[in-house]
Task: structure prediction
Amino acid sequence: MSAEVSNPLFARLFHHLCGRDRGQGERELRIELLADARGKVVEVGAGNGISFEHYRATVTELIAVEPEPYLRRQAVEAAAAAPVPVRVLDGTAAATGLPTAAADVVVVCGVLCTVPDQAAALRELRRVLRRGGELRFYEHVRSRRPGFARWQTRIDGLWSRTMGGCHTDRDTVAAIVDAGFIVERCRGFPFPAGARIYPVAPRVLGIACNP
Result:
């Protein structure tokens, strides 16, 4: 059964605007996220394949899971020019269709803000990841500043309807810990650096282990 999620307007917006590096440091963040990744990697919610060019030869195979058909077609095109072997598959974070312990590394980038059920998605990611494997994440999150967090909550409904189901106020690091992962490294920062009221400016980038 297809896990397809059709969201054509948002998909095109992502591809033409958000899914491209605009000189604000996005490229460098993705390079940091994927640095030293090795073995068999599963990238869930791969979008249009924006990260493919940043994988290195230490990756033996990249399986890219993307439920949105327009973005999946763009990812297939990007895979042809990737420096590592890439398979692009239909699937969601909660239902990847992959075998248990299939991956040495699972990558999520701007995904856990959008999934309908974070706990279900993280259970699936942990199932797909071998014991001792890494979950690498780059996500926007609920701010630690109470006033800004209240602003995120107020705008969440409108933002989610407009931006393909993306939520502004999720405590994603806590959800990762609750799912049984051990966070080994994580840093928080605003992005873009000068953002003042941008509701998805608070970001985290890190690595968690599947014990």
Q: What stands out?
A: The chain has a mean pLDDT of 91. The beta strands are 39-44, 59-65, 86-89, 103-109, 129-140, 182-190, 202-209. The radius of gyration is 16 Å.
